[in-house]
Write a structure and sequence with these properties.
The chain is α/β, with parallel strands linked by helices and 453 residues long. 45% of the residues lie in helices and 13% in strands. About 3% of the residues have low confidence.
Length: 453
């Protein structure tokens, strides 16, 4: 494999000389004529090393360095500077540059520097930098990310949490709706009281009423004793009704009454019991559209939708991926007793570019798989689930619909099915539901792809 070197230099003659020299050493070289074009190149394709001039006209090397490392903190950047700018170069090292070289360049040292980086391309310094950033995010109740989208989310949570308003948390599967619900509870006046969770889709409609409101002894076959429901267990605290969109219409009527009257009636009992519970509902479905279609009660929708909190999908905040990767890396290295030291730049770049249809849950699964299967002390692209996949098969947010024009439909279908299957943790029924196909069809496709075991 030929290593990719990006040279960012606004002096055309010096840039051409470097390209010729470095290409003779066996590297593929790409030129950028200023800091802004250098940043664009990093975002548009993968590089192993960046050589970055300090002084440029449109965007300085220092500012370009900051933007490059913000996009991919694992990418090694070597600054090129005049003797008079050594202090600035030292400042660049503090920001995260790998090294600096003074002009006129010592070509032997340049070659040695490139070789040294490639020998240790899995850089501990960048990973340590990410780990330090990771520690600083603990303030936000296990919600990681500093992107504008996550900053807006956290701002909304901070405003809503201290109130007693019902909240509807929406977002695609795997985005972290339960974490947002927990943050709402943990930052509310109810934080010292119970936080009870229930997945409405995981319980049969006939049992859901009993799970929510409890039942009296002898209420039905097998009810040999009185049992408290989730609402009573959450008294004075909060309850999370996850997958609320899967609740049947008859059950929705009973839930609406609880929200209106602030009291429950256990199954098989005539007693009305007052409850003081903050309701947080979560769904990956469009309840407003369902209400218009008549599959979800409009009055219940309005009761639940006092405030809506929407969790952005991971593909809309790729700048948060390095933090999440390092977080999962630390967790799963410890869990699986593997001493994985970090992530290679090519792997981090691939994860930043991947569209993650299964969102954070899919990323988490991918990192754990990579930790378990890693052949070295560092995760490489080949350790990722899509690492050995042809790039045309990998969903990429940068290419859009045009990227799929010449891709066979069978290949797109395969990627969609396998990505959804991974995001659903191998649950075939859930995968079929998300894809909108029958379980029989899914099993046939998985057998075709060799994933039927």
């Amino acid at each position: 494999m030929t290593h990719q070197i990006l040279v960012v230099e606004d002096d055309p003659a010096h840039a051409r000389m470097l390209k010729t020299l470095i290409a003779d050493w066996g590297y593929e070289v790409v030129l950028a004529d200023d800091g802004d074009t250098g940043v664009e190149q990093v975002k548009s394709r993968s590089f192993d090393i960046v050589l970055l001039d300090m002084k440029m006209k449109r965007l300085s090397g220092m500012e370009a360095l900051k933007q490059i490392l913000e996009y991919n903190p694992s990418l090694p950047v070597v600054m090129m500077t005049a003797y008079s700018s050594v202090d600035t170069a030292v400042e660049a090292l503090k920001i995260g540059a790998y090294d600096y070289l003074t002009k006129p360049l010592d070509f032997d040292r340049l070659k040695l520097t490139l070789e040294r980086i490639l020998e240790r391309i899995f850089l501990q310094s960048e990973n340590q930098h990410l780990k330090e950033r990771l520690k600083s995010t603990a303030l936000h109740h296990n919600i990681l990310g500093k992107s504008p989208a996550m900053a807006a989310l956290l701002d909304t949570l901070n405003m809503v949490a201290p109130t007693d308003a019902n909240v509807l948390v929406t977002g695609e599967s795997g985005t972290g709706k339960e974490l947002a619900a927990a943050a709402l509870h943990d930052n509310s006046p109810r934080k010292d009281q119970p936080f009870v969770r229930i997945n409405c889709a995981a319980i049969t409609p006939t049992l859901l009423e009993s799970e929510l409101f409890g039942h009296a002894k002898g209420a039905f076959t097998g009810a040999d004793k009185k049992r408290k429901g989730k609402f009573l267990l959450a008294h004075k605290g909060s309850i999370l009704l996850d997958e609320i969109g899967e609740m049947t219409l008859p059950m929705q009527v009973k839930l609406l009454r609880v929200l209106q009257e602030k009291e429950i009636t256990p199954v098989g009992s005539d007693d009305n019991i007052s409850v003081d519970v903050r309701v947080i509902a979560a769904t990956n479905r469009d309840l407003k559209a369902m209400a218009k279609q008549g599959t979800f009660r409009q009055d219940l929708f309005f009761r639940l939708n006092v405030v809506t909190v929407t969790i952005p999908p991971l593909r809309e905040r790729p700048e948060d991926i390095p933090e999440l990767v390092l977080h999962f890396l630390a967790r799963f290295s410890k869990k699986n007793r593997r001493e994985i030291k970090g992530v290679a730049p090519d792997a981090m770049d691939a994860m930043i570019r991947y569209a993650w249809p299964g969102n954070v849950r899919e990323l988490m699964n991918a990192v754990e798989r990579a930790v378990v299967l890693a052949r070295t002390d560092y995760i490489t692209r080949m350790d990722l689930p899509f690492g050995q996949t042809d790039e045309s098969e990998t969903p990429d947010r940068a290419h859009g619909a045009g990227h799929l024009e010449n891709t066979p439909l069978s290949r797109i279908e395969k990627q969609a099915i396998l990505s959804t299957y991974a995001a659903a943790d191998g649950n075939k029924s859930e995968t079929a539901r998300r894809l909108g196909i029958t379980r029989k069809t899914l099993l046939k496709k998985l057998k075709q792809y060799g994933k039927d075991k």
